[in-house]
Amino acid sequence: MELLENRIAKDGTVKEGNVLKVDSFLNHQMDIGLFNEMGKELKRLFSDRKITKILTIEASGIAIAAVAAQYFDNVPVVFAKKSQSINLDGSVYSTKIRSFTHGREYDVIVSKKYLSPEDHILVIDDFLANGCAIEGLIEIIKESGATIEGVGIAIEKGFQDGGKKLRESGVNLHSLAIIDSMDASTGKINFRHL
Amino acid sequence: MELLENRIAKDGTVKEGNVLKVDSFLNHQMDIGLFNEMGKELKRLFSDRKITKILTIEASGIAIAAVAAQYFDNVPVVFAKKSQSINLDGSVYSTKIRSFTHGREYDVIVSKKYLSPEDHILVIDDFLANGCAIEGLIEIIKESGATIEGVGIAIEKGFQDGGKKLRESGVNLHSLAIIDSMDASTGKINFRHL
After folding, report:
1. How many domains, chain B?
2. How far is B40 from chain A (nearest CA, A)?
3. pLDDT value at B84 more than 90
4. CA–CA separation, A107 and A86 (whole Å)
5. Residue A8: inside a domain, yes or no?
6. Residue A18: left if φ>0, alpha if ψ -120 to 50, beta else—which one?
7. Residue A88 has pLDDT above 90, yes or no
8. Do the Cβ atoms of A67 and B66 come within 8 Å?
9. A77 closest CB neighbour out of B24, B63, B87
10. What pLDDT digit, counting tens, does each position of B24-57 carry?
11. Could you tell me which residues come within 8 angstroms of residue A93 by beta carbon, excluding any fewer than 6 positions away?
């Protein structure tokens, strides 16, 4: 998606350790007009699928999923929570996800009330790198018996293996921007065009 | 706001300890059509203010703020983060907030890049009870030198003192639904009408 690639090139910052900072428009400060365009593009990419619910994970996926849902006939959005809250009933699907960004493992939970075998799920998240978070969400969806219609990602780090693994396992994955390589010393970002 | 009150009455569940569960439509599964109507109403309530940015806090405030921003000319939305992430630069505003729901204290941070003295801020969050989270966000905004134009809340627990404290301190606070009392044994919820 050209609009997103141009924005990453303009406002993204490459840091040592393959870190891409996009917190001026994507995951701390958020450009809602851009999210609208991303939502329209996700609808176009998954227009052949019947989506009844969108699943994302806190925190950065939530706004993208919520704005995108407007283009999917306002289907409900469920966000997976990153730790047990006393406000949630005990009846949850859960899995453990390793976060390389935060250097730790955490529990991810979704109430069993909000995923059922009748649901057709589109997973939306902001980043795909090693794929741990998406694999965790897919595990939860499989446990619920719902159908995984696809995974929509804003930015995929194509030089890490999450996207490759998901595609090889048959997941209907679309990323709005795929980064093939990036260089912290020059700031140069190369995008993959399919 | 009648639409929200009706939804709380229909789908909210009152639990012992003054807990109101609205996770079927507000803070776990989210009804984006409802959020659109809430966004329109927030715009109406704050139409006399010039808003340049919306500030919220992860995780449940994010979707409400993002959808509402569409009715404020797509102003940027910034969400305060609940713990230090290695992906954030060191240069942040921070404060400590006590969460009664989770029974602990946590650090809340906003990058200094995204709040400045030129900003006119509307704070949006899902719940207002004792007011700790909103007070923390206000502290951060004051530290940045930005102007606080108002605070918009989905559900205020009017029987706790957060709303009273904020109004007495001169904050331009609007809550879309204010609960005066609720009863876990009968499930009855009484709303305040101003």
Report:
1. 1
2. 15
3. no
4. 14
5. yes
6. left
7. no
8. yes
9. B63
10. 999 999 999 999 999 999 999 999 999 999 999 9
11. A109, A110, A111, A112, A115, A140, A143, A144
Q: Do B78 and A19 touch (CB under 8 A)?
A: no
Angle made by CA atoms A116, A122, A124, in degrees to the nearest 5: 125
Contact at CB, A62 and B66, closer than 8 angstroms = yes
CB pair distance less than 8 Å for A114 and B32? no
Q: Which residues pair with A190 in a beta bridge?
A: A181
Taking contacts as CB-CB distances below 8 angstroms, the residues of chain A near B29 are 76-78, 111, 113-114
Which of A7, A30, A100, A111 to mutate against chain B (most B CBs within 10 Å)?
A30
Q: Is residue A194 part of a domain?
A: no
Whats the size of chain B, residue-wise? 194
Report yes or no: B172 and B150 within 8 Å, Cβ to Cβ. yes
pLDDT at position A12, please? Answer: 98
Asked if A32 and B113 come within 8 Å (Cβ–Cβ), the reply is no
The 10 Å CB-count burial string (b at 16+, else e) for B148-169 is bbbbbbbbbbbebebbeebeee
- Tell me what pLDDT residue B194 has: 73
Test mutation, B32, B40, B84, chain A, max A CBs within 10 A = B32
pLDDT value of residue B99? 77
Asked if the structure places residue A20 within a domain, the reply is: yes
DSSP state of A171: -
Angle made by CA atoms B16, B176, B37, in degrees to the nearest 5: 120
Q: Does B91 touch chain A (CB under 8 A)?
A: no
Q: Confidence class of residue A87 from pLDDT cuts 50, 70 and 90? A: low
Collapsed DSSP state (helix, strand, coil) of residue B48: coil
pLDDT for B89: 57
Range of the domain at B65: 2-191
pTM for the whole thing?
Answer: 0.96
> What pLDDT, on the 0 to 100 scale, is given for residue A85?
53
CATH number of the domain to which A134 belongs: 3.40.50.2020
pLDDT digits (tens, 9 = 90+) for A141-188: 999 999 999 999 999 999 999 999 999 999 999 999 999 999 999 999
State yes or no: pLDDT of B98 exceeds 90. no
Radius of gyration of chain B (CA): 16
Q: Which residues make beta-bridge pairs with A109?
A: A81, A94
Average pLDDT on A54-73 reads 97
